[in-house]
Amino acid sequence: MAGFNVTALALDQNGSPSRFTVAVSVTDSDGLGIQNLSENNFIVRNIASDTDLTVAELRSAGLPGFYRLSLRADPMTKAGRHVLALVVTSPHQVMGRVPEPIEEAHTLVQVSLA
Hints:
Layout: E1 4-10, E2 19-28, E3 42-46, E4 53-60, E5 66-73, E6 80-89, E7 104-113
Antiparallel strand pairs: 1-2, 2-5, 3-6, 4-5, 6-7
């Protein structure tokens, strides 16, 4: 994979106050959607506080390169706005192939926890 781009948008929060969804688009340098990413390819950090976040679920959104990322915050997380750093890494190497460097792309997204 020769470089890629990530964009993200926080969706309205439904249900549990400690869970929220982020829509993510991952494209290569030619604008084509990158498919077959797993939860292991997504790293999320709250850069506005020490709140721990985990990827609860990753689903394809039905189009190449589009994903719904369900995130879970610690139940003790304070309500309010949080700024997240979202890092997407390239898929891992297939065994037996010449290793290629792992690439990554990143973006920021703001979420509101109720």
